[in-house]
């Protein structure tokens, strides 16, 4: 299971704090996500990481009220545009297109995704892959507190909801 | 557009004739196709070519009564099982699983797919990619006749229909 908590952040400030924490910079991504309309709690998207010329189909099922627990199936694909056309052919409508710049940092089994999201702002997703959601959230909050993040900084809405508001 | 005509054949006999025609052997495939239930004229499948460890998602729209003209979107994917699980997660039922061995030959812009299909028999698909379906069919029938194939050898049903009968 993928467990992640999203925080609204000040980009420059949090970047310095993540680096000061000892997390190492993994890589940078320029993402374009095409989300298709599927009934919640499901999510369906085709992602392009343009600067790495990598493309993915991702299917998720949200497992909680706060959009923190996800069952996820993701696999790499050869062609972004063809995947988008295939889903349109099957009858799916595009719900939103989200463009973001992402700086990825890692510290042990915790992944920090610092996102600059067009039309939505700056966010930090702290993510852990784990069997036990409670254990994962404990780990996430341990580092979140070290970064000075509080419960009131949590953004429980999905990017797709933030974009479409 | 993908134009193809499917013939019911005697495997050994037609293999010799294809080779005698001067077509060159391209490669061999062990295919496993998972077809999902979608309303016709659409077709949706995930294909594994096990011996080449290649996997594809294919979406087609049948454009004629004889199942010879197809609008096709196909792209390579990294993982067969995850794609199958994704479509199941989205709510698609598996309509059929088709296993076949395929010998591919080429002669100029004509592709010969000689198929040994489990539970259905032996077939030759003669395929041309072209803008103009009539021009493509003329080309197909030109070589088909040289192979001794006749109108009565045509199998207009899809593999998925042959398997499910």
Structure, explained:
The structure is a homodimer of 165-residue chains. By secondary structure, the first copy, chain A, is an alpha+beta fold. Chain A has one domain (2-163): Hypothetical Protein Pfu-838710-001 (Beta Barrel). The first copy, chain A, contains 4 helices and 8 strands, in the order βαββββαβββαα. In chain A, a hairpin with a 4-residue loop joins strand 3 and strand 4 (54-62). The longest helix of chain A is centred in the C-terminal third of the chain and has 14 residues, at 133-146. At the A-B interface, strand 4, strand 5 and helix 2 of A face strand 4, strand 5 and helix 2 of B. Chains A, B: InterPro entries: Adenylyl_cyclase_CyaB (IPR008173), CYTH-like_dom_sf (IPR033469), CYTH_domain (IPR023577).
Distinctive features:
8 strands, homodimer, 165 residues, Class IV adenylate cyclase (chains A, B), 4 helices
């Amino acid at each position: 299971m993928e467990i992640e908590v999203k925080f609204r952040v000040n980009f420059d400030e949090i970047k310095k704090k993540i680096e000061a924490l000892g997390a190492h910079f993994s890589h940078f991504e320029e993402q374009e996500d095409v989300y298709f309309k599927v009934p919640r709690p499901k999510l369906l998207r085709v992602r392009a990481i343009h600067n790495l010329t990598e493309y993915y189909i991702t299917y998720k099922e949200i497992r909680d009220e706060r959009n923190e627990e996800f069952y996820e199936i993701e696999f790499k694909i050869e062609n972004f545009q063809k995947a988008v056309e295939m889903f349109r052919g099957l009858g799916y409508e595009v719900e939103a297109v989200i463009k973001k710049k992402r700086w990825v940092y890692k510290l042990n089994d915790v992944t920090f995704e610092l996102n600059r999201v067009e039309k939505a702002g700056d966010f930090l997703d702290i993510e852990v892959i784990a069997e036990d959601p409670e254990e994962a959230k404990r780990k996430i909050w341990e580092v979140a507190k070290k970064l000075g993040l509080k419960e009131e900084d949590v953004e429980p809405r999905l990017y797709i909801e933030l974009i479409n508001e």
